[in-house]
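G., before I forget:
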Amino acid sequence: MKWSEFFVTGEPLIYAADVSIVLTVIGIVFILTYFKKWKWLWDEWLTTVDHKKIGVMYIISAVLMLFRGGVDALLMRAQLTAPNMKFLDSQHYNEIFTTHGTIMILFMAMPFIIGLMNIVVPLQIGARDVAYPYLNALSFWLFFVGAMLFNIAFVIGGSPDAGWTAYFPLAGNEFSPGVGNNYYAVALQISGIGTLMTGINFLVTILKMRALGMTLMRMPMFTWTILITCVLIIFAFPVLTVALALMTFDRLFDTQFFTMANGGMSMLWANLFWIWGHPEVYIVILPSFGIFSEVVSTFARKRLFGYKAMVGSIVGIAFLSFIVWVHHFFTMGAGAAVNSFFSITTMAIAIPTGVKIFNWLFTLRKGRIRFTTAMLWSLAFIPNFVIGGVTGVMLAMAAADYQYHNSYFLIAHFHYVLIAGTVFACFAGLHYWYPKMFGHMLNERLGKWTFWLFMIGFNVCFFPMYFLGLMGMTRRMYTYSAGLGWTPLNVVATIGAALMGIGFLVLCYNIYYSARYGERDMTGDPWDGRTLEWATSSPVAHYNFAVIPEVKDLDAYWEMKKSGKGFEMDEEKLKPIHMPSNSGRPFLISIAFFFAGFGLVFKWFTLAIIAAVFIILGLILRSFDDDDGYYISVDEIKRTERLTRKEA
Amino acid sequence: MGTNYHHETFPWKHIVGFILSLVLTFAALWIAFSSGLATKAILTGIVVLAVLQAVLQLFMFMHVTESDSGKIQTINMAYSFFIAIVVVAGSIWTMAFVL
C-alpha cells in the first residue's frame, strides 16, 4: 500500500482536518507536559475504576462526538441549502451521512446515556460502586478506542460510505472496495463489546447492590429504565456482534454470507441489523424517559404520577421492541402477512408510550413547577416527542409506508424522536446532575439560551423536512435540481441547523464559564431532590456514602427530609470502607484492541495477531490478579465528611 | 463478598468444559469441511453440536445450578428462549420470500 492511499488526499476540507488534528494533539501534549499533568492523567483518569469518573469520561467523549457528528450535519445542510451545489461531491456526501448517523447513535447518544447512568445509578440505589468496577473501566476504554478507530477513518484510509445501516450488497467488497467499511465493522465490534459488558455490569449492580429496604418497586424511575435497558442490551447486542462478525468475514476473507452470489443473502444483513437496531433505539430512549421522570417529578415537587403504570409501560415497550424490527424494511417485499404483523406490533408500542406521556402530564398537574433549564428541556420534550411519535404511527402503516419510506418524512420522524427524546434528555440530565459530577452548577441563564436556540433551531430544521419528504425528496441524495420547488424549505432547514450549532457553542461556553464562575453547590441538594443521589455531597466523595442509607419508601431522600431527619450520619456507626484498586490494565488492553482493530481494517494480519497476543496476555494477567482492593480508614472518612457536610 | 460458594481448589469443571467445548467446535468444523455429508445432514449435525455446546457451557461456566432463586433462573431461561425463537423463527418467516 502506498502512503498516498494510506492517507486520504485531494480534498481541502480533509487537509484542514489533518492540520487541526495535528495541532490539537500537539496542544494536548504541550499542556500536559507544561503543567506536569501526565502523572495526574494516569493516576486520576486513565487507571480509575470509580464509576463517577468513568461517567464523566463517557460524557466528555459524547460531547466531543456530538461536535464531530454536528459538523457532519452542518456540512450536509450546507450542501443541500440550494440546488446543484458543488460544496461536496457525491462520494464525500456519502461518507458524511454515514459517519453522521453512526457517530450520533453509537458514539454520542449511547455514551451520553451510559455516562449519566454510570454517575447516577449507584448513587440512586445507595451503592458505593458498580458490581464490577474493573470491568466498567474496560467497558469505557473499549467504547473509547472503538470510537477513535471509527473517527480516524476519514483521514486515514477513507470513511465508510454505505450509510449507518451499511446495507449489503452496497457494503460488500464488490461495491465498497476500500477500507472504509472495514472500519465500520471492526470499530463497532470493539465498542459493542464494551456496551455489552456495561449491560451485564449494571444489571448485576441494580439487582444485587441496592441499599437495605430498596425493593424493586421503591427504585427511582431512572434506575428502573436502566435495569430494563440493560436487559435490552444483553439480548440485542449479541445479534449485532454476530452480524458484524459475518460482515468482517465477508469483507476480509471473502466469505459469502451477504453477497449476491454463491448462496449469500444480502437482505439477511438488513434483517439482522434491525433485530439489533430496533431494540437499540429503545436502549437510548428508555433511559431518556427515566431522566424526564426524575426531572419532572423534582421540579413539579410531586411524586411521579402512576409509578406502577410507568414500570409496566417500560417493561411493555421493552417486550414489544423485539418484535417490530421488520417495519424498517416494509418495502423489501416480505408480503402482506409479515408486513401486517409487524405493522400491528409497531402501532401497539404507541399504547405504553402514550401511558407514559399522560403520566408526565398528570405529574405536572397542580404541581408547583420551577422552570429550571433541566425542566425546560423536559417540558419541551413532551410536545416535540409527540410529533415524532405520531408520525411514527403514520410510518407504521405498512401500506402507507410505501409512500414515506426513505423520504425526508422519515428523516424528520426519527430526528423528532431521537433529538426531542434522547438529546433533550441528555441536556436535561447534564444540567440536573452536573453538581454531582463537578461540585458546581451549570449557569442557568446560559443554559436557557442554549435551550431556546437549540429547541427553536431543531424545529426550524426538521419540521420542514416532513413536507420535503411528502414533496418527494428522498434521504441520502447529495443534490437536487432547481425546478422541484424544494429550495425554500431547504433554506429554512439549514437556518435551523445553524441555530442548533450556535446553541451547542453556547453550551460549550457554559461549561467553561461555569467551571470558572459557576455557583458552587455547598448543600449537595441544590434542587430539593427526592432520590438518594441528593443525600450525598457535591461533588460526591469517592466512596459515595459514608453510611449506607436505609430506604423506607419510594423517593427515599424526600421521605427522610419530610420526617425532619434528613440523612443523618452517626459517626459512631462508621466502619472502614472497602474500595476497589485502580488498574491501568483496562486502558492498556483497549490500546491493544485499537491496534488489533487497525490491523484488521488494513488486513495487516501480523499487527493484528501481535496485538491480539497482548489482549490475551492482559486477560491472563487479570486472572492471576489477587488485588482485593483496599480499605478507607474511619479517620479518613470522618475527615472527608466533616469537610463536605453542611451540618458539620 | 457476602455469600461464599464452595470453590474447589482446582477449577476442574472449567477445564473439562473448555476441552469439551473445543472438541465440539472442531467436530463441527470437521463435519462442515471434510465429512462429505449431504448439506442437510451437515446443517443438522452442526445445529445439534451447537445446542450441546450451549447446554454444556450453561452447566460448566454459567453456574446455572448455583443460584439462590430458581424463579429468577426460570424467568431468564424462558425469556432467552423467547428471544431466540423470535430471532430465528422471525428471521426465517420474514426472509421466506427470498428463500
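The mean pLDDT of chain B is 85. Chain B touches chain A at residues 1, 79-80, 83, 86-87, 90-91, 93-98 (CB under 8 Å).

More on Monday.
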